[in-house]
Design a protein that fits this description.
Blueprint lengths: L33 E6 L2 E5 L6 E6 L7 E7 L2 H10 L6 H9 L11
Antiparallel strand pairs: 1-2, 2-3, 3-4
């Protein structure tokens, strides 16, 4: 009798989330291209096409999606907006923001 190399039968999903998969939807908590978490309810992401940085605010509900607060293509405009919102006082956040290139198009695609 010949033994086959077959994978074990798949088991149905029991409602457990796969934590290894990142989302491509900007509104999701586990979005794949988060640049920096500014505060508990604010973050900066890069859009899927790599055309702009987006400051997002999390809706008040824990289950609520992230919503865009502003769109930026240059480092200076993003830094200025974060400064107006009071997010450049944290040294780690400031370091991440200052390390960004002059224009979002200069970020290497993942």
């Amino acid at each position: 009798m010949t033994k086959r190399n077959t994978p074990p039968p798949s088991t149905p999903n029991k409602g457990v989330a796969n934590t290894n998969t990142l989302s491509n939807r900007e509104r999701d908590d586990d979005y794949t291209d988060i640049v920096v978490q500014l505060a508990q309810r604010y973050r900066v992401i890069r859009c899927p096409q790599g055309l702009q940085w987006i400051i997002q605010e999390k809706e008040a509900s824990h289950e609520g999606p992230w919503r865009a607060e502003g769109y930026y293509t240059t480092h200076d405009s993003l830094l200025n907006a974060c400064g107006k919102l009071g997010f450049v006082s944290d040294p780690n956040t400031e370091a991440v923001l200052h390390a960004l290139p002059d224009h979002v198009s200069q970020v290497a695609k993942k």
